[in-house]
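Tutorial handout. Part one gives the primary structure; part two gives the three-dimensional structure as tokens.
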Amino acid sequence: MKMLACIAAWLFAVAFGAAEESLPFAVEKSVGGGRPCLCIAPPHGIGAWDLSGVGEVRVALSNATDQAQRVRVAVFGDGMSSDGDGRLKAPWRATRIPPGGVRMIVVPLNDTPYATDSPVDLEGMLGKVPSLGDLPDFSRTGRIEVSADVAPSPSVQVAAGRILPVVLGVDTAFVALRPKVIPSGTFFPFVDRYGQFRHDEWPGKIHSDAELAEARDAEEAWLAANAAGPVPNADRFGGWADGPQLAATGFFRTEKVDGRWWFVNPDGHLFWSLGVCSVYPGLPTRVAGRESFFECRSDAAEAWPLRENLKRKYGDGWRARHAGAVHRRFRAWGLNTIGNWNHDCVWESRRTPYCACIDFSSRTVLPTWNGSKAHGRAVPDVFSPRFAEDIAAAAAILAAKIKDDPWCLGVFVDNELGWDGCGTNVAAVAEAYYSTIRAALKEALPNHLYLGSRIHNDFGEIDSVWLAAARHCDVVSANHYDLEPSCDLPRGAPDKPLLIGEFHFCTGGRGQFSHGLVHAFGAEDRAARFRHYVETCLDDPRYVGCHWFQYQDQPLTGRFDGENFPCGFVSICDVPYPELVGACRETAAAMYQRHSESSAEGLFK
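Part two.
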């Protein structure tokens, strides 16, 4: 236990800086929501913890069992929003703890950058501006609840006897934000002509077309000075030219070298994929029915803020000039892969390796699938002849664009399927799904890697799914939103490399309302968490890459489903975030040496 406590202290101090205050605690077992849980509270005689002014609570947990566990943590107490049962709590946060492993869960308490003095209606947006009356004061709290998430995923069930994790430590970090209060009477319109929040100022905010031009010219000079990028002697694909020379097949492949998985690029050099997803010249946001949101009134049903800013910034030929800037930025920042969801106008110039995507939607859905949109995409009817026909047709369409293209890293098919809606038949469904897709891809695109379906860590971590993916995919991919990756293949799975298809950290402020799927306290903390996540992947010999979601911030007023995450490497005005760029350059400079020295010692199989 002393050794585990030291590990917990290392997690706190090294990964995210020293804690502000360690909390004394006692632990009792109970049941919450029909599941076993631990209630962590102040020891008897101590009274309640005072969390006034605290930004986040961090709980270190260990798993002493021989099976992976998925656990959830929430903070309950005075001034917190109700969970429907009359209890007051901060949002749930979850993680997967490998057998014998240690993980830290961070629960944000108060990181709201903006508030209004009375409620305003921001329909169609996930991240909103609360009113002062809706903000929790977090003055005092009674307990923290740790729940073992035993359903519905067998890969995360608690071991026999429902043994709960061991609590190693509880502490607090960061100072709670004091939100800027905006009078509701003057809140609308809150979006300026550049798609930015009108009621605040921050570094990098654009106020005029002249400022856009100045930002463009300043960055052009910086890109020219840093054109070689931070990776020492990188080859044309961004691979490790100073590393071992392997067989050059003319296409990307995978190989295990000295116990470590790698991509091998077409020239035979080792390649570790550091990428960014969703490289688009803009996405629309709805205007119709929300005209009062926007400073510039329009009769159009939707607006394209990033696209309009790119036109202002680059002028004639803006699409090609933007695509050229993307490739120069990637090289200068240390990125070597355009991840999933990329636009043809970017990858077709073939200057940066890219991932192709079959955003597949079969004409039939598995009749027994009982999931919902909130729990992943519908699983296709893999036993219908139409499924094989549909995937073969989609593969043929893609092959017409990219067949035998050496710049294609590989192909993703589908995204974040709701495997937990398949019930007891999931093993047979997953086997049919991955085997059918592999056959179609290898028929149409025999020289390209099958990168899997990007299994989501919240509703896809099921042993039989991972087993089927490992049998049929060249690389097993997962979208894993957490402080660090904790993906693994179950016992008995073929030895295959792992790839993180999506991760990110978001911070409010700088005109943004949402904190995305994993929060950070400010730009510097976001950069630090980026480095820790990528370096954790690099230190694991099973990983061959990780891809940040996404390239540009989402529209402040939300994309098609309301997501308005400030998750970009660049703002809605195409202005890079210097802290994140700096962290990427520092990480990329050492990534090949670091992964070549990664060790399986201490990893949990």
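Part three, for discussion. The radius of gyration is 24 Å. Residues 426-444 form the longest helix (19 residues).
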